[in-house]
Amino acid sequence: MTGLENISAHNGWAIVCVGVSIVVSGLATLSFAIAQLHKLLGLWDNRRNLFQKFKNRKENMESQETPVLELSLDVQENIRNFKLLTAKIGDPFSLPKLIEYSEKCGLKSPLSTINTLLTAKVIVPDGNGYFKWFN
Fold this sequence. Notes:
Distance between the termini: 90 Å
Helix content: 55-70%
Shape: elongated
Order of helices and strands: HHHHHHHEE
Number of strands: 2
Strand order of the largest sheet: 1-2
Largest sheet: 2 strands, antiparallel
Oligomer: single chain
């Protein structure tokens, strides 16, 4: 066996196809990288301006005040109810236990109310996996 018969007998056509696909994909990747090189060089040339923008954005975010959330009367009533429940649980308290007790007591929409209290920072984490009242 010689020539094309030998290539066919030893799976040579599959090896050729794999080799060609590797070369073509490598060339495509290289051409894409070269095509995007101007963007990378532009970033390198303007790196001081870029860092200045990030620094200004960070300063602006720090200077913005956090908005004060107005709590409705229903939420204030639920705060009183939740404070009674947490007095029974103990301080600091676990949120799953608070949710369980509030569902047993029949409080209105306990999950959304607790989410509102967490967003308004009325309930804050203590750092050990438990929560406590802010004031």
